[in-house]
Design goal:
The complex is a heterodimer of chains A (229) and B (121). Chain A is mostly helical and 229 residues long. Chain A has 6 helices and 4 strands. Chain B is flat. The chains are: A mainly alpha (229), B mainly alpha (121). At the A-B interface, helix 1, helix 2, helix 3, helix 5 and helix 6 of A face helix 1, helix 2 and helix 3 of B.
Chain lengths: 229, 121
């Protein structure tokens, strides 16, 4: 087996041989380490949400107006896409755990397709906004333009956060390609699936971030300028 | 690579995944109808409350945190840290901000849409 563990041997001065403790089969340690990484993601996005909330308290009406101008249909479709992709990724892990490697790979391919669909829709959305003169350092977002300042802050944060989130989606696709290669190489298997487990966790945190990004940007202005505060 | 030697009830776990999916889809539907149906004067609070319920479902069932007390405690600890800073920044700093006139980001804070351009000095 390619993942066969060969223990390291240490020899003392008197020639006695000792087996060095290995952690290659430490499933919980691998999972715990990845959770620590995910907490750094929460802290990063948490800081951005704090900035967003700070600006929101300063410019509440402009935030509602800007939010109302976003395309809720496309945002909603992307929400459902990510939701279903979290299911397919979860099912891929479940299938791997019960030994259905082929089924697991199919579910990973489905997740990748959904991730690509998310990016394409997000691309259309950004393009429409760009054509309306709303993009970072462009048109209405330039300092000298007449757009209300609070809206500039809103859209600035919107492009920053959805951009970083989109970057995480791209990384996720890359990780899934890597996972497929590892499965094909026999290095991820029903018996040794911590990599699969952690990439599924990564995909869940990407989904989790969107669960808060979507209502904060797209929905707070849905009830009109008096509804959100 | 590590191993996870717990026994797996495939049908039960798959059923849980689908149940959570239905729950999340229903909550997403509620997200869309809420601004027109209930708590219409508090859309922000309602939206965030729905998001918290969705997040709880994802964390507990999709991220398998249910029954994992160590990681759960770590998660709560991290959230408490973020929430503490959040309260300090929003509750104290913003509430008592004294330099609105000098700041480029707070210039128009005293007014609504009609005074929306920043004050430059």
């Amino acid at each position: 087996m390619s993942h066969e563990y060969i223990p390291e041997i240490a020899t003392s001065r008197d020639g006695t041989k000792y087996e060095v403790q290995g952690w290659q089969d430490d499933f919980y340690g691998g999972k715990l380490g990845f959770w620590l990484f995910m907490f750094t993601e929460v802290l990063m996005f948490g800081a951005m949400f704090m900035v967003l909330a700070y600006y929101n308290t300063l410019h509440p009406h402009e935030f509602l107006e800007a939010s109302a101008s976003l395309n809720r249909l496309l945002g909603g479709i992307n929400t459902v896409i990510l939701l279903v992709s979290a299911l397919t990724m979860g099912l891929s892990l479940l299938k791997m755990r019960v030994g259905d490697v082929k089924g697991a790979k199919l579910m990973i391919y489905a997740t990748m397709l959904l991730a690509l669909a998310f990016l394409v829709i997000k691309g259309f959305e950004w393009r429409a906004e760009y054509n309306h003169g709303i993009f970072l350092m462009h048109g209405e977002m330039l300092p000298e333009s007449g757009m209300a300042f609070g809206k500039k802050l809103f859209f600035g944060m919107y492009f920053t956060m959805t951009g970083i989130h989109g970057f995480h989606i791209i990384i996720g696709i890359g990780l899934m390609i890597w996972l497929l290669k590892r499965i094909n190489a026999g290095k991820v298997s029903p018996e040794h699936h911590i990599l699969h487990w952690n990439i599924a966790l990564y995909w869940d945190i990407v989904h989790l971030i969107w669960v808060f990004v979507f209502p904060y940007y797209y929905m707070i202005g849905a009830g009109g300028v008096t509804g959100g505060h | 690579m590590g191993t996870n030697n717990t026994t797996i009830d495939y049908k039960k776990e798959r059923s849980a995944y689908y149940k959570v999916l239905i729950g999340l889809l229903l909550l997403t539907a509620v997200t869309f109808i809420q601004p027109h149906l209930f708590m219409t004067e508090s859309t922000f609070v309602a939206q965030m409350a729905i998001a918290v319920v969705k997040a709880w479902l994802i964390i507990m069932y999709y991220m398998h945190l249910k029954g994992d007390s160590l990681i759960g405690v770590m998660g709560i600890f991290s959230l408490v840290i973020v929430a503490t800073f959040f309260i300090i920044v929003i509750g104290f700093d913003v509430a008592n901000f004294q330099y609105g006139a000098e700041s480029h980001i707070t210039g128009p804070a005293s007014a609504g849409v009609e005074h929306a351009t920043p004050v430059h000095h």
